[in-house]
C-alpha cells in the first residue's frame, strides 16, 4: 500500500520494460513492513538532467536507482560521489543528503565483490583479470581495487577505454599494480568476463579457457542465461565460479544500506523476489 508517508525510490532509465528491481525491492519492503516503494520512471536522455534535479525537490523522494542510459551522465549532476563511482566513471544510486545535496555511489562492482567473498574466495592481495572495461567492468575494477587486490589486469577491444580505466585507477589507487592489453588468464586468481560475449548464441568465448587454471575463481556478468558457455567451460575445468545474477542480488543489500533501510542477504532476496 502506497500512502502519503511512503518513501519514493525512483528507478530511472529508458526504456523501462525490462526493469527487474521493483520485483525484488518491493516484495522485500512489503514483507518487512518498510514504508517505501521502487517506481519505474522512464526518462529520455535529453530530458534527464532537468528531470533528476526536479525529482529530488519532491518532499517524499528518498533516492533513485539509476540504470541505462543514465549511469554516466548522472556523474555531472551530483554534489558528492564515492571513490567507486569516480573510478567506474558512472553512478547507479543517488540519495538526498540531510543538507539537500545529491550523493551518488556505484554498486555493480560491490555486488560482484560481495558475492566472491561470500563464496569464500580471498580478494585482498589477489591477482585479477577483467575482460571488458566498459560500465560494468569499470565498476568491478573499482570495487576490486577498494577490496585490496594486488594486481589488476584490464583487457578491452577498445584500447582507449582500457587506458582511461587504468588512469582512473592510478589516480585513486596509486599503489595498485595495473596493466592493460592482454586477456591471457594464466597466473590470475580471479578472472572476470565483463563483456557482452555470451548474450547471443554463437558468441566466441571471451577468454582462452585452456589458459585458465582449475584453481582460478571465475566471474560472469551476463544475466540472460545462468550458465553461459563460458561458465560451462570453466566448470568443466574445475573452477569455482559466480553467475551473472549473483552480482545483481548481492548488490541490493549494499543499496539498502546506502538508502539507510534495514538490510538483508542475497539469499533472502532471491527467495522473496517475484521475477517469474
UniProtKB/TrEMBL annotation:
Residues 13-94 form the Shikimate dehydrogenase substrate binding N-terminal domain. Residues 121-159 form the THIF-type NAD/FAD binding fold domain. It comes from the Bacteria. The keyword Cell inner membrane does not apply. Keywords: Amino-acid biosynthesis, Aromatic amino acid biosynthesis, Oxidoreductase. InterPro entries: Aminoacid_DH-like_N_sf, NAD(P)-bd_dom_sf, Shikimate_DH-bd_N, Shikimate_DH_fam, ThiF_NAD_FAD-bd. Pathway: Metabolic intermediate biosynthesis; chorismate biosynthesis; chorismate from D-erythrose 4-phosphate and phosphoenolpyruvate: step 4/7. CDD domains: NAD_bind_Shikimate_DH (cd01065). PANTHER family: BIFUNCTIONAL 3-DEHYDROQUINATE DEHYDRATASE_SHIKIMATE DEHYDROGENASE, CHLOROPLASTIC, SHIKIMATE DEHYDROGENASE. This is Shikimate dehydrogenase. It comes from Rhizobium changzhiense.
Amino acid at each position: 500500500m502506497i500512502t502519503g508517508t511512503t518513501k519514493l525510490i525512483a528507478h530511472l532509465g529508458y526504456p523501462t520494460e525490462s526493469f527487474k528491481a521493483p520485483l525484488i525491492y518491493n516484495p522485500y519492503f512489503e514483507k518487512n513492513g518498510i514504508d517505501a516503494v521502487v517506481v519505474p520512471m522512464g526518462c529520455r536522455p535529453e530530458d534527464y538532467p532537468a528531470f533528476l534535479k526536479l525529482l529530488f525537490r519532491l518532499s517524499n523522494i528518498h533516492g533513485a536507482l539509476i540504470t541505462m542510459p543514465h549511469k554516466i551522465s548522472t556523474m555531472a549532476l551530483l554534489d558528492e560521489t564515492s571513490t567507486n563511482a569516480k573510478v567506474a566513471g558512472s553512478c547507479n544510486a543517488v540519495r538526498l543528503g540531510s543538507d539537500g545535496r545529491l550523493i551518488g555511489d556505484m554498486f555493480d562492482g560491490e555486488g560482484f565483490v560481495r558475492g566472491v567473498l561470500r563464496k569464500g574466495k580471498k580478494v585482498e592481495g589477489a591477482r585479477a583479470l577483467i575482460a571488458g572495461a566498459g560500465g560494468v567492468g569499470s565498476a568491478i575494477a573499482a570495487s576490486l581495487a577498494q577490496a585490496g587486490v594486488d594486481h589488476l589486469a584490464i583487457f578491452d577491444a577498445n584500447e582507449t577505454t582500457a587506458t582511461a580505466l587504468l588512469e582512473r585507477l592510478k589516480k585513486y589507487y596509486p599503489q595498485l599494480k595495473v596493466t592493460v592489453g592482454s586477456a591471457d588468464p594464466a597466473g590470475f586468481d580471479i578472472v572476470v568476463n565483463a563483456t557482452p560475449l555470451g548474450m547471443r548464441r554463437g558468441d566466441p568465448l571471451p577468454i582462452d579457457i585452456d589458459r585458465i587454471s582449475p584453481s582460478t575463481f571465475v566471474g560472469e556478468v551476463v544475466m540472460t542465461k545462468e550458465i553461459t558457455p563460458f561458465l560451462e567451460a570453466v566448470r568443466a575445468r574445475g573452477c569455482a565460479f559466480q553467475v551473472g545474477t549473483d552480482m545483481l542480488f548481492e548488490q541490493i543489500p549494499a543499496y539498502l544500506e546506502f538508502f539507510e533501510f534495514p538490510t538483508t542477504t542475497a539469499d533472502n532476496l532471491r527467495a522473496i523476489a517475484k521475477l517469474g
